[in-house]
From TrEMBL:
Chain segments carrying region Disordered: 1-39
Organism placement in taxonomy: Bacteria, Pseudomonadati, Pseudomonadota, Gammaproteobacteria, Methylococcales
Protein name, as recorded: DUF2058 domain-containing protein
Lineage: superkingdom: Bacteria
Organism: Methylomonas rapida
Residue ranges, compositional bias (Basic and acidic residues): 22-33
Length: 184
């Protein structure tokens, strides 16, 4: 077989030493036989190499789709975290390092934030909530905490239900004074 009768790919493979002339002749003969059978009998010969290549291509396409779905999901989570961080930072209530301790439970551990008396009462009465960010804990108004909770339930650590003021006539302990220095 002369080299000028080979297709360019076969010529390159022969030149690089990855194939031999015998293999090239064998492949050409096999192709002629399949073409002849197809013409004479109308039978389409199934090429295992083409079939396995097609299956491999389909598997790779499926893996690519799954990776793209995971990548898109990760980007959405990242965007959601950025939204939560921005909302929290724009609406946070200042903490007071010299203020009163407000303790709460997060991941089965007791955590503490220091706030002024007004913010502590808001937390207790459900008018404020505590949000967990990567940088720590922030206090935000209850409406903002509910918005964040709608985006990511796990970001809101403390959001008490608003308390209803008990009517004085229904309160059996209304006559008893609570000392000012008693902290819960």
């Amino acid at each position: 077989m002369k080299k000028n009768q080979l297709n360019p790919l076969q010529a390159q493979l022969l030149k690089s030493g990855l194939a031999s002339e015998a293999k090239a002749r064998e492949a050409k003969t096999e192709k002629r036989k399949q073409d002849k059978l197809k013409r004479n009998n109308g039978v389409d010969i199934v090429d295992e190499v083409k079939l396995s290549a097609e299956q491999a291509r389909q598997l790779q396409a499926e893996r690519d789709r799954e990776l793209n779905r995971q990548r898109k999901l990760a980007e959405e989570q990242k965007a959601l975290a950025a939204q939560i961080k921005q909302i929290t930072e724009l609406n946070r209530i200042a903490q007071d390092a010299n203020g009163l301790a407000y303790q709460f439970n997060h991941d089965n551990k007791v955590k503490t934030v220091y706030v002024n008396d007004k913010a502590r009462e808001a937390l207790i009465n459900g008018r404020a909530g505590i949000i967990h960010l990567a940088s720590g804990y922030e206090i935000v108004p209850a409406e903002i905490a509910r918005k964040i909770q709608g985006r990511d339930v796990h970001s809101v650590i403390v959001l008490n239900q608003p308390t209803q003021d008990i009517a004085v006539s229904d309160d059996p302990y209304a006559a008893y004074q609570i000392p000012d220095d008693l902290m819960w």
